[in-house]
Structure formats: C-alpha cells, structure tokens
Specification:
Helices cover 40% and strands 16% of the residues. By secondary structure, the chain is of the alpha/beta class. The protein folds into two domains: 252 residues, 3-Layer(aba) Sandwich (Rossmann fold), CATH 3.40.50.1820; 89 residues, Rna Polymerase Sigma Factor, Chain: A (Orthogonal Bundle), CATH 1.10.1740.110. The strands form two sheets. An eight-stranded mixed beta sheet has the order 1-4-6-5-7-8-9-10, sandwiched between helices. It has a two-stranded antiparallel sheet with strand order 2-3. The protein is globular. It is found in: Cytoplasm.
C-alpha cells in the first residue's frame, strides 16, 4: 500500500470558471501495474470516505478479497473538498496564508473527475479495466465513463443515479440548514460548525438506513423507559463519530457538489449521455434504499447499452452498498468473470 499526494502545478480550472491554485490530490495505490497496463481498478469513494479503500470496503477490497493487490493495481483518490489530504476548504490559501473556509470555490462532480483524470495521466494510466463506485462514488464513475468512454472497459456502479433527485437535494439542504444554525460555522474557525455538523449527520443517517433497521437494532427491552432511548443515543453517537474525523466546511461543500450531479448538463440529454457509455456495465440497486431508490439504478441500466442490472435485499437501506459484502462479492465476481470470458472468446475469434 502506498499513500501519496500529487500537486497539480498552476491553477486547476473548475467547471464554473473559477480555479484552485496548486490543487492537491491525495491517493492510495495497492499492488503493481502490470506490463500490459490492463489490471487497473479505480475506486471512486463516497461522501465522507477517504482514499484508503482497504479500510472502509473490507471484504470486497483486501489482501485476500476479490479485489486484491496480487491480481490488480488498485487506485483510490481522495476527492476535491474532502479533508483527507486533497485540497479542501481548510487548505491554506496562498493569497491570505489562512484557510479558505467559505471562500473556497464551489466545485462539481465533474470537477472531481477532471482532477482524477489528471492524476491517472501522472500515474501512467491510460485505460481503466474496472471503474467502481457507490453513491457519490457512483456519480463520479458515471461522469468518467461519459467523459472518456473509450478508456473505461468495465463499469460498476451501485446505489447511485444519473442526476441527483429533488429528494436527495432536499435531504442535503436540510443538513446544510442544520450546519448554518451553528453560529460558529461563519466564524472562520477550524472547528467551526461542529454542532451543526453533528445534527446534519443525524439527518443523513435517517436517509441512509430504514425503519426496519432501527426497529431491529435500536428497540427497547425496558417497557417502562420514558427517556434516554437507544435510538437517541445512536443518533448522538453517529454524530459525534463524524465530528471527530470530518469538518463542517468540507461536508457543506461536498453536499453541494452531490446536488450538482447531472449527466445531462451541457449535453443533449441524460439519456444521450448514458447512451455514450461503452463500458461493460454492472448496475446494482438496493431494494430498501430510500435515498437512491432502485428505479434510479434501473433507469441507468436501461439507457446504457447491454448494461446488467442486479438488485440486492438489505435491512440497511442505502448503506447496504457498504455492508452487504457477501451479496456484492457474488454479483461482482460473476460479472467480471463473465466479461473476462467474453473478451477471451472475442480475442480467440479474431486470432
């Protein structure tokens, strides 16, 4: 495993015309690029994750898992705006020698992909064998497959969409409103907005899980309890957990970036954009996902040529793409084996 940071010299131009000076991109790599350079697995991570995919997607990525460093050269890069090593609102501005805070330029999913395309070039990666991501990571993967259709051989997206929904935007706006109620968010302090961030995380968690999961894991055994419920403690715990590892400014900007996701922007249409994807595509939905409902994944699969769609059952809603490892392993491994056999068959026919 290697953890490094790439610095892009000059100004990285954003989709909105603004720029980030000397953009930094933190990234992890695992394994080695083979001579044919056809063993690249590029992972696009979700909202509050980092570039260490072996840490947060265990069971799918690891030394003895399907995606392992013996067979693949695995790359996961930290997205713009995230506090795990890439340029973000708490980075130091050259103009002021102080953190950017709320003057950090707004960015989009497309900007994240543009940054990672630059990193791929620096790493000598000209083609990606498998591009994979869930949620916001899936949004990035779809954008990349549209932007560079010839370079992506296999595409795997899960619990994601082709355009962020009004429902998803409403959840994100509610979280930002919670952050804005914390006066310290506007005080230009490193720890600004943390109380608001805790509340925002509590709101988000309700969209990530399901009523059934709470009923199963947070039910009370004491029939006489009238306060200090397990569900209340759980919401507080999850809020505190994020506050210890994240910051309110990054969260604020990243939710706005998610809202910006629209494959049809400055293109003919969303369906036309999906039609341009040439990769062998696997789309996975989660039956109980209320944040990214399965019909959004079905829509993606419908308009990508020969895309394969699978739907998994999970008690945990949207978080199922991180937790239902056994189901994911089975679907993904079968998909990759089938596409490999198909490619081998075509090569034999050509020979």
């Amino acid at each position: 495993m290697n953890f490094k940071t790439y610095q892009h010299k000059g100004v990285f131009e954003l989709e909105n015309g603004k720029g980030i000076a000397d953009l930094e991109i933190a990234y992890h790599t695992y394994g080695e690029l083979n001579k044919e350079k056809n063993n690249v697995v590029w992972v696009c991570h979700a909202l509050t994750a980092n570039s260490d995919v072996f840490d947060w997607w265990k069971g799918l990525f690891g030394q003895t898992d399907f995606f392992n460093p013996k067979d693949f050269f695995i790359v996961c890069a930290n997205i713009i705006g995230s506090p795990y090593g890439s340029s973000n609102p708490l980075s130091i501005s050259k103009n002021t020698d102080l953190p950017y805070f709320l003057v950090f330029p707004q960015f989009s999913i497309r900007d994240m992909v543009n940054a990672h395309q630059i990193l791929a070039q620096q790493l000598g990666i000209h083609n990606i064998d498998i591009l994979i991501g869930g949620s916001l990571g899936g949004q990035q993967a779809l954008e990349w497959a549209v932007m560079e259709p010839q370079k992506i051989k296999n595409l795997i997206v899960m619990a994601t969409n082709a355009v962020h929904s009004p429902w998803g935007i409403a959840f994100n706006e509610s979280q930002r409103l919670a952050i804005e109620t914390d006066p310290s968010f506007f005080s230009n302090q490193i720890n600004g907005g943390l109380k608001g961030l805790k509340t925002a995380r509590s709101i988000a968690l309700l969209s990530y899980r399901t009523a059934s999961s709470y009923n199963k894991t947070q039910s009370e055994q004491d029939l006489n309890k009238v306060d200090n419920f397990r569900a209340s403690s759980y919401q507080n715990y999850q809020g505190d957990k994020l506050v210890k590892r994240f910051n309110a400014y990054s969260y604020y900007y990243l939710t706005k970036a998610m809202d910006s996701h629209n494959l049809g922007r400055n293109r003919d249409s969303i369906t036309d954009a999906l039609n341009t994807i040439k990769a062998n595509t696997l789309v996975i939905g989660i039956a109980s996902d209320i944040l990214f409902p399965p019909d959004e994944q079905q829509y993606i699969a419908k308009y990508i040529h020969n895309a394969e769609y699978h739907e998994i059952e999970s008690l945990y809603g949207h978080d199922g793409f991180l937790l239902e490892i056994k189901q994911l392993n089975s679907i993904i491994s079968n998909f990759i084996k089938a596409t490999t056999l198909e490619t081998d068959h075509k090569n034999l026919q050509i020979a």
